[in-house]
Each structure stands twice: as structure tokens, then as C-alpha cells.
Amino acid sequence: MGSYNETFVCKPPAQSPWWAPVVFLQFVIVILGCISHVIFVKLAVVPRNFGRYIRVAFALISAMMLNMLLTSTGAFVITLMNGKFIEDCEISAMLPRKWLLYIHSFGEYFFVVCELLGTIERVISTYYPNFRKSDAFTVYIAIAGVLGISASFAYIYFIRISFVKHLFAIGFGSLTAMEILNGIIVFILLHAAKRKYKNSKDATLNFKFEISQSYSYCRCAAASVIARVFIITFVYLQVFGLFEGSWGDSGFYYVMNILINLYCLVYPWAIMLCHRKIRGEVCH
């Protein structure tokens, strides 16, 4: 990103050769991440190990994460083509790079929307199974998806275009709020589904199946929620100035993007390895 001095001349950040291995690591993570999502789609999305709505949510999440991996890599390639390890304000102003980051921000927000909608679907399947099977539920979930897409476009404006502090706070705050809400629901439902299954000896097989699906989903999602906590913590430590002056804004955003890409690599494995059947397929 760099910064501007009092005469509005770009002050580029220091281009230390120590960033070279970090750049190499970035590309290794992206390649492994893309391979991981191909495996994830093959083992978790295509087979019927989860319900229809969860598989759709996983497919969308995987698509958004591939989007984030590829667009962030494209932005880094543009930086490298201009002879820099870290972008300065001149590189940040390049239109192709801006559009790549707009698309990246859309994926960053919409994948959390998909996670939250998937979790809500499991809550409704557990407590209101008849409503979950109705046409009305399909309409409501579709409307929620459209609203999520609209909110994702608004997030792009708040984070990447407006440069207004309170809009940035609204955008990033809403993303954090969804992540926290999703995490709370996942852990509550994990224990509730386990308890319900133990107390459902006389219940129908279909009811038991839905409960077991909710438990399996929450068990998998809990691992990804825990992994996400590290990124949120890292970002808010910067927001509150803990890293101020240590590596500059450009260095912070570079490291943050690597952490996000690392999460995109870890996410499919967190889901697959926490699901007993899929874990068996991976290990054998």
C-alpha cells in the first residue's frame, strides 16, 4: 500500500529481500490450496455425505475460497511484475489489481454468508424438520442468499472503495459479527444435537438421520471456526495498534493475506478429517 507524504508524493515501503521466501511460501500455499479444494469437492460435495443444502453451501464456500486464492495471487503477481515484493501506493492504484481485490473481497464476505446459512439450515433441520422440507423454506433460503450477495457487494464498497472509517467499521464489523454468530451456533448445536440423538431412542429413522447430520456438520465446522479465530485476532490486534510501526500497513496486509490463504488451505481438510467417513477415504 505505501503511504503519501505531506505533498502527496508516494512513499514506498522498504523492499527487504527477506520478503522473498515469504513470497515463495505464498505461491506454495495457493497451489496446495487449489489441489485441496479439488479433493474437497470430490469427497465432500459430490457424494451424499451431507444434506443437499450443506453440499450446496460447501460448493459455494469452495468456489469463494478458490476465488480468494487466485485473486490474491493475481494481485501479488502484478506487484512482482513491477519489481516489488510489497505493493506501494502506485501499484495499489493500478486498475487491474483493484478489480482483483474487489472480487477477492466479495469472496471473503460471501463465503461467511454461506457458512452461516448452512449452519442455520442445520438448526432448522434439527428443531423444525417439517418446515425444513417445505417449499417455503427453499424460498426463504434463496431470499437470504440474494441478500447475502447484495451485502457482499456492499462490503466491497465499504472496505475497498469508500475509505470512510465508519463504513469500514460497519463492513468489517458485520463480517466479524457473522463469524462470531456462526461459531456460537455451531458449538451450541454440536452439544444439542449430541444430546438429542442420545434421547431419541423411539424417534423415527429420518429424525435420527437429520440429528446425526447436524452433529457431523457441527463437528466439522467447529474445527474451521477455531482456525478462523486466529485470523480475526490478528486483524483486531492491528486495528488496536499493537503492530503499529513494526512492519507498516503493507507488511501487515501481506501477512494477513497469507493467513487468509492458509485458512483457505486448511478449511477443506478441517471439514474432511473431522468427518469419519470422509476421513476414512482420505486415509486409505
Automatic annotation (TrEMBL):
The chain crosses the membrane at residues 18-41, 53-79, 99-118, 139-161, 167-193, 214-239, 251-270. The keyword Chloroplast does not apply. Coiled coil: none annotated. Keywords: Membrane, Transmembrane, Transmembrane helix. It comes from the Eukaryota. The keyword Transmembrane applies. This is G-protein coupled receptors family 1 profile domain-containing protein. The gene is Cni-ZC190.2.
